[in-house]
Amino acid sequence: MQFNRSIGSIALLFSALGGIVGSGWLFGSLYAAQIAGPAAVLSWIIGGILMMVIAITFAELATTFPVAGGMVRFADYSHGPLMSFTIGWMVWLSSVVVAPLETMALLQYAGNYIPGIINVSSHSLTAKGILFATVVMLILLVLNAYGAKFFSRASTTIVAIKLIVPVVTLITLFALDFHASNFTSVGGFIPSGWHGVFAALPLGGVIFSFIGYSPAIQLAGEARNPQRAIPLAIIGSLTFCIFLYTLLQLAFVGSMKPEYLVNGWQHLSFSGDGGPFAGILAAFGITWLVVVIYADAIISPFGTAYIYTASTARVGYAMSETKFFPTSLHKLNNFGVPLRALGLNFVVGMLLFLPFPGWQSMVSFIISCFVISYIIGPIALMSLRKTHSDQKRTFRLPAAGFMTIVAFYVCNLLIYWTGWQTVSKLLIAIAIGFVVFFYRYFSGKFAPEEKVWQRAAWLFPYLIGVGVISYFGAFGGGKNAIPFGYDFIVIAVFSICAYYVAMISCKIGGRREIEVKVE
């Protein structure tokens, strides 16, 4: 059974918007301000532009090869099964965390009016909270079991509702007692320097907020007219959200009362900061909007979790199709949905509530996994242009040779900025993935084509290089042997070398036939 192409252009756009506008808007402005101060406004602009540079490489790939679980398949087409598995493992692992993370955000806000589900001091779930989380996760599974057509209609409605609340919130904050002096009075506009501006990208939830466009890629195999729908969804959603998040950060900084800032931006705190925007509005006495935000704190995270529950199942489907995961996950139900993959993601998602007790701890893990998986965008685009130059491309990235190098460089910067403490965990997660791959390979679960190791040989020195640079770098527990500023040059040289080695590797083993049906 094949996936039904029943998701229209607007529905795909709304799925990307819904993936981006989730719990990030509820928490990101506070965490980014604590790290970068008023310059967090620049973090949102820079983060959005950098993510756009990466995203446009996927716009060409997904329109040329509109398949379910696209990021996994692109890697397989360009560099074979080992590269495909590595990317798929990271995409699946990071995506499967999104539903429990958004459930955590939902319950963290709900803890204000449902006693006993959240530990107030640690913001972690209690036993009662885990029971509530189980119910939410089961609802997500059941709703997604009814297929893409139901998903298309429901997600569009949910996203339309949840976009209204942040817009109304920022308009209200601008209209209240706006303190323009907050942008210069406490340590200046950039109190933590440019280091803080860039550190806020991964640690303040900025990059996490923008990575949500990826469902448009994973659902490409079910899109009607993918050549039109996919670029609209990716570029349109990111453009809108750059403006939205930048304005939200401006409103947040300007609405801070001077007494909140007496200890500096790094120690910013106020009553109700567990739900930052609701806490600010409560202090102004805007009770009706506080109630609306609490309602949106259910709708927004639930909507994002709903969308990711759908797209993550397609990643599991793609992993089973390549035999990296058991082939039983490849089976679709009567609605054309990989129900067993949904079930696996539910079980893993529930287990993730144990090691990641709060929203911020889950975010740091997701970012590291997602960004490493994005390297396949620029690498696969140019690789497949070389090996499949005759493939019809209805959307072509201008100046692709230059833009893909820049996009690859951006990916490596974003990985580096997460810091050594996060990168080290990322490398451990990849190593665990390699154990799974080699187990299935040597147990005869799949037999990839010849020269599988040669085609992905560039991956191992690349990962080692990422670890070494991060270890000696200036972010997140690094040794600071590579001073801030010089690290931009080091990563640029490293990125160019790794990029060209990857281009050489893609030609090993010759051209592979790719069959994609677009109805």
Describe this structure in words.
By secondary structure, the protein is mostly helical. It is 67% helix and 0% strand. The chain is built from 20 helices and no strands. The protein has helices at residues 9-20, 24-36, 40-64, 70-110, 127-144, 147-175, 193-203, 206-210, 215-218, 226-255, 276-284, 287-321, 339-351, 359-373, 376-387, 400-417, 420-442, 452-455, 459-471, 486-505. Helix 2 (24-36) runs antiparallel to helix 7, helix 4 packs across helix 17 (420-442) and helix 6 runs antiparallel to helix 12. The longest helix is centred in the first third of the chain and has 41 residues, at 70-110. The model has no long low-confidence stretch (mean pLDDT 81).
Number of H/I helices: 20
Number of strands: 0
Largest sheet descriptor: none
Radius of gyration: 22 Å
Instruction: Indicate the low-confidence ranges by residue numbers.
Output: none
Order of helices and strands: HHHHHHHHHHHHHHHHHHHH
Shape, principal axes of CA atoms = globular
Give the integer mean of the pLDDT values.
81
First-residue to last-residue Cα separation: 15 Å
The proportion of strand residues reads under 5%
Helical fraction equals 55-70%
Structural class: mainly alpha
